[in-house]
Structures are given as structure tokens and as C-alpha cells.
Specification:
The structure holds 2 protein chains of 2 kinds. Chain A is of the alpha/beta class. Chain A is built from 7 helices and 9 strands; from the N terminus they run E-H-E-H-E-H-E-H-E-H-E-E-H-E-H-E. Chain B is globular. Classes of the chains: A alpha/beta, B alpha/beta.
């Protein structure tokens, strides 16, 4: 039966950036589909909140404080997960942030800021995939899910290093898919459009989200919880013939011929966004 | 998996006589939808073959309708969709899975062949989408899933008419997604790769020369399209629209 194909019973999953927003909601959705989950991020109290939600779904949860910019910590995350759960079936490399380059103009970005933003996004995805493959290849199966951004597919004036790194994640994912398809490993990338990170936005955030939503074809910003079913689809046997693919979930923005999210590309050289 | 359940949804699958349509029709029913299964040509043999599938849907405890309609006719498609919506009590999901491949050197393609390929791949999609949108606008919106081949996104010798028509379906879908996003209708494409039993795909065996170019080193199975169709048809996919999602074993992604 088709709904059984979405089940993840007995699977072990890692979600980085699992302390909040999309990562938390993906972790919980994967647990609800039957998986035990290791959640990684830097902030322990946030991870504990995710863990409580995973355990409320009746699954085991391992909290692993991790700075994903450090490959040794990512390796240790995988080792601890395998020690605890005995296997690793799905790695969701969700962690990411603007990084030190922020929204600076190219001429103002230092070498260090460039390196930090790449490490925070592209670097961590590579470390995650490498550590995961070391377990998945001998196992003969596994799923790698990366998370990029609409900024990977279109020019983005408010964080060009982030966009470049995220585009790198898409290319990395495609190559991983092609290299390991025969070894039973699938790799796919989720491209979230404008999605509210917080579960319960405050009044000011609420107003911002409503104003952003007007520029998105479906008339609203996405909800973090909407990433859950997509993660479950990609993590499970429901997507058994899907690999190397980029799954855009953006309320129709990128399909729009004129104003994907309502921003005109107004940026002048030398001026900070 | 309650997020993906389709209980209470009323679905129409056009092209249900083909293997993709058959697999998707069955998957929608397994997920809980009532399903109208329509063969895309008014061929009595196709209608007969559909009855067995209809029986499978009913064995799952779902309602089914089966019929054969020439959906390359505007009126045929309109009347069929209206009738399906009337009998099922509304229409929530439309899947267009009909297609017609023509393999022929471009300079030898006749006007009639061009018209036939555009007719079933593109015009029929336009007619059924238009009729379905009219029904969905009466309710609270709906889901349209147009199933196309990887040749919608890439070229192939001796396949120009098919490539053009399939690509047109992708951009038709994008435009519809934008036009009806504010009224609760979501429109996406599933791009399928080389499937077992597909004309031109050859044998499933590993000696099949085509398989060398598929990273997964095997042809896809039509049943592997079902879960994605279920997801796109479900309430869980409300933030997904205007996109193409490939189920292709990675064939579109390698250099």
C-alpha cells in the first residue's frame, strides 16, 4: 500500500540545524514517520526542545551539540549516532546561516568572511555527506538530504556568498547522487522558498510575514511544518527512484516570470543591502 | 502516514490506460481517494482494460468510475470532466498521464502526425486542465499533477514533436500555477525517467544499453511514481506549486 512506503520505522536519522525552524520540524516529522533521530546544533536548550517533541512522538532522540563548521565534530556526531542507534539511514544536512559575509557587498567581504560563509553552508554539507557515506557505503544503503535555498538558483543581492555556497550544495548533491546511485545511496536537495522559521511568530514578525506573503504566489509564506512531509518523502522508500533531484518548495515563487518573491533586484554597487 | 492521506478526495486520472496513469490511479485510491479512471482515447479495448483497474480501486473500498473519452476534443474533455465531477460530487485532484510518442526523423513528420502528437500531449492537457479548473473553482481549489517524460526537459533525435509538446506542458503548468495560486489550486509536474515497459526503453535487464546512462543502473517502475503523486495531491503539499519534480533514477542530473 502506498502510504506504507512513507514509513521510516527502525530507521536512524540525523538532522543538523535541528534546534529550531525547518530542522526541528523535519526532525519531528521524521520521528512521526517512525525514525529515531539525532539532532545537532550549537544551542543545547533548543535541541532539548526538539528532543522533547521527538520523544513525544514515541521515538528515541539523541542530542549532540555540534558546530558543523568543524569536521571533527561532524564525524563525532555520526559516530555517536551509530553507537546509539546501531546504524545511520538518513542524514539531513540542514544547518546553514548567512555567515560572517552577511549581506556585505563583494568589495567589502574579507577572505575570512568569505571562508566562514562557505564553511557555514557548503563546508558543513560536505563534512556531513562524507561522514554519512563512511557508514552508508558499508551498509549498502542510505539517504542524504541537503538543504539549499532559492538564492542558489537566482541572483541574490542580500547575501551573495550564501547564494554561491547554496548553489554549491545543489551541485554537490547531484554529484553525490551520480557517484553513489549504484551503491544504494540516494541524495536529494530541498530548496525552501520563503518559509517562517518560528513556530509562533511575535507580533512584529507576524506583520513582516504577512507583508512578505503578499508577494508569494500562493499568498502566504511557508510554514516550517510544511518541510516535514517533503523530508519524509525523500527519506523514505516513497522516493525510491528519486536521486540528484532538487525539490523546490516555495509557494510558486520561482515559477514566476516577473517577481518571484516581490523583491526587485535593487542593489547598487558600494551600498550595503 | 496521515499527512499524505487522501480520504474524501475526488480524483480524476486521464490516461489511466497507460502504465503511469494506472499506477498513479491505484496509489491515489490506496491513499484513500475516490478515483475516476479515464482512457484518453475513445478505444473500447482501453475502456475494457480499465474495468479491471476500477475493480482494484473498489476492492480498496473506494469509489471508481471508468470510461474512455477522446480528450483531444475540447467538448469531449469538458463533458467528461463535468460528468466525473457530478458523479463524484466534486473534483479535488486531476492527474494528466496521457501521452503519445512519435519516433521519426524530423523532416519526415507529416502535418497530421505533428497535430496528433500535439493533440494528445498538449491540447488534451489544456482541455482537461481548463475543464478541471472550472470545477475546482466551484470548491475550495484543488491539485493538478501533469505527468511528463524527461523529454519535456531534454532533447532527443527523432522525437522533436514529442519533445516540443511535452515541454509545453511543463510551462503550461507553471503558468496555471501562478494564475490560480491565490485561489487554492496547485499545479505541478512529475517528470518520469525511463520506465520498465515504456516504448523505447527496451528490456529491464542490466544488458539494456540505456541503463548504462541511468545512475541507478535500472529502469524505473511505474509504481515508483505513485507516492509522489499522492504527496502532490495531498493537503501536505499546499506550499508546492509551479514546479517539476523528477522521478528518474538520476538520469537528468549527470553530465
Amino acid at each position: 500500500m502506498v502510504l506504507e512506503r512513507f514509513r521510516l520505522d527502525g530507521k536512524a536519522v540525523i538532522v543538523t540545524g535541528g534546534g529550531r525552524g525547518l530542522g526541528r520540524r523535519m526532525a519531528v516529522a521524521l520521528a512521526e514517520a517512525g525514525a529515531d533521530v539525532a539532532v545537532a546544533a550549537r544551542t543545547v536548550p533548543e535541541l532539548e526542545e526538539t528532543a522533547a517533541a521527538v520523544r513525544a512522538a514515541g521515538r528515541r532522540c539523541l542530542v549532540v551539540p555540534t558546530d558543523v563548521r568543524d569536521s571533527r565534530q561532524v564525524d563525532a556526531l555520526v559516530e555517536r549516532t551509530v553507537a546509539e542507534f546501531g546504524r545511520l539511514d538518513v542524514f539531513v544536512a540542514n544547518a546553514g546561516a548567512l555567515g560572517a559575509a552577511g549581506s556585505k557587498a563583494p568589495v567589502d567581504v574579507t577572505d575570512e568572511e568569505w571562508a566562514d560563509s562557505l564553511a557555514t553552508n557548503l563546508g558543513n554539507a560536505f563534512y556531513s555527506a562524507r561522514a554519512a557515506l563512511r557508514v552508508m557505503l558499508p551498509q549498502g544503503s542510505g539517504v542524504i538530504i541537503t538543504v539549499a535555498s532559492g538564492t542558489a538558483l537566482r541572483g541574490f543581492a542580500q547575501g551573495f556568498v550564501y547564494g554561491a555556497a547554496k548553489a554549491g550544495i545543489i551541485a554537490l548533491t547531484k554529484s553525490l547522487a551520480v557517484m553513489y546511485a549504484r551503491q544504494g545511496i540516494r541524495a536529494n536537495c530541498i530548496v525552501p522558498g520563503f518559509v517562517a522559521q518560528m513556530d509562533e511568530p511575535g507580533p512584529m514578525e507576524q506583520e513582516f510575514l504577512l507583508s512578505r506573503g503578499r508577494y508569494i504566489p500562493v499568498g502566504r509564506v511557508g510554514r516550517a511544518a510544511e518541510l516535514g512531509p517533503l523530508a519524509v518523502f525523500l527519506a523514505s522508500d516513497a522516493s525510491s527512484y528519486v536521486t540528484g533531484e532538487t525539490f523546490v518548495i516555495d509557494g510558486g515563487g520561482l515559477a514566476d516570470g516577473v517577481a518571484p518573491v516581490g523583491y526587485a533586484p535593487a542593489w547598487e554597487p558600494g551600498r550595503q543591502a | 502516514m496521515t499527512a499524505f492521506e487522501l480520504a474524501g478526495k475526488r480524483a480524476l486520472v486521464v490516461g489511466a490506460e497507460g502504465q503511469a496513469g494506472r499506477a498513479i490511479g491505484l496509489a491515489l485510491a490506496e491513499a484513500g481517494a475516490d478515483v475516476a479512471l479515464v482512457a484518453a482515447t475513445a478505444d473500447p479495448a482501453a475502456a475494457f482494460a480499465l474495468r479491471r483497474l476500477g475493480g482494484q480501486v473498489e476492492a480498496l473500498g473506494r469509489r471508481s468510475l471508468t470510461q474512455a473519452t477522446d480528450v483531444t476534443s475540447s467538448q469531449g474533455a469538458q463533458v467528461m470532466v463535468r460528468q466525473v465531477a457530478k458523479e463524484l460530487g466534486g473534483l479535488d485532484v486531476l492527474v494528466n498521464a496521457a501521452g503519445l510518442y512519435l519516433g521519426k526523423p524530423f523532416e519526415k513528420v507529416s502535418d497530421a502526425e505533428w497535430a496528433r502528437v500535439l493533440g494528445l500531449n498538449l491540447n488534451a492537457t489544456f482541455f482537461t486542465c481548463r475543464a478541471a479548473v472550472r470545477e475546482m473553482l466551484r470548491g475550495e481549489g484543488g491539485r493538478i499533477v501533469n505527468v511528463v517524460s524527461l523529454l519535456a526537459l531534454r532533447g532527443l533525435s527523432h522525437s522533436a514533436a514529442y519533445c516540443a509538446a511535452q515541454a509545453a506542458v511543463v510551462n503550461l503548468s507553471r503558468a496555471l500555477a501562478l494564475e490560480y495560486a491565490g485561489r487554492g489550486i496547485r499545479v505541478n509536474c512529475i517528470v518520469h525517467g525511463w520506465l520498465e515497459g515504456m516504448p523505447g526503453a527496451g528490456e529491464a535487464a542490466a544488458e539494456n544499453p540505456l541503463v548504462r546512462f541511468i545512475p541507478m543502473r535500472r529502469l524505473g517502475r511505474a509504481a515508483e511514481l505513485g507516492p509522489l503523486a499522492v504527496y502532490l495531491a495531498s493537503d501536505a503539499a499546499d506550499y508546492l506549486t509551479g514546479q517539476t519534480y523528477a522521478v528518474d533514477g538520476g538520469v537528468l542530473q549527470h553530465l
